[in-house]
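Example 4.3 (complexes with small molecules)
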Amino acid sequence: MKGWVKALLLLASVSCTLFAEPALELEGQLTQGSLLRGKVLPGSKVFFNDIELPLSSDGRFVFGVGRDAPLKHQLKVQLNGEEHIKPLTFTARQYDIQHVNGVAQKYVTPPAEVTERIRRDNQQVRTVRKTVSGLPFIFDTPIMPAQGRISGVYGSQRVFNGEPRNPHYGLDVAAPVGAPVVAPLSGKVLLAEDLYYSGLTLIIDHGFGISSTFMHLSRFDVAVGDEIAQGQKIAEVGATGRVTGPHLDWRINWQQVRLDPALLPGLVLN
Ligand SMILES: [Zn+2]
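Answer. The structure with zinc ion bound is encoded below.
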């Protein structure tokens, strides 16, 4: 009997509270491509797989896992000389395969003279995505940046004119050229450039290493360094770069880790 009660108590402690002390709250889906938000007692240290996460003054933090991430991870919380480990088991996702024909050949196999430009574009994007600021906006509830049908999803693999390409990491919203793009969360503009593949591209910092990228725009309404508010018009939908029609391609990154915008906690999809 004693052993049975002990087992029951152990089960209860595993399923009801993440651990007794200190409190750990987690928000988000434990699946590939997901962004998770958490909260611990202020003054704690939090590690995701041994990477120390920056904490807000009230103990909030954020992290995520990529499209093909392993399924076993852990959070480690240190407070007052004690250390608690919270194992995290993620679920695997199934991704769509999309065949896209009629893409201009120069985008399927870029001509040699643009390879240097593409390399510079990638370097520039990589650099701004390293930004880890203390902006607190990633802890707000996001809104959709454009109205329209969801025409492309995260993780899908595209086959352009019969040639398999890298997976697609954006959430695509079909909308006409000139349709407004609004900020899904407040932030600060990190990049506003015309890039080879993604056309007119805007990157916005929401804080703690999380950025939004908006691609294929026809016009910018903001410039690098601008501080923008959630819901503010920041750009217009376009068809610039490698596209078959006008749409907004919205991406979410945790520094270089590409996450699924559709899994942002609290987001209501179109
Ligand atoms: Zn897209």
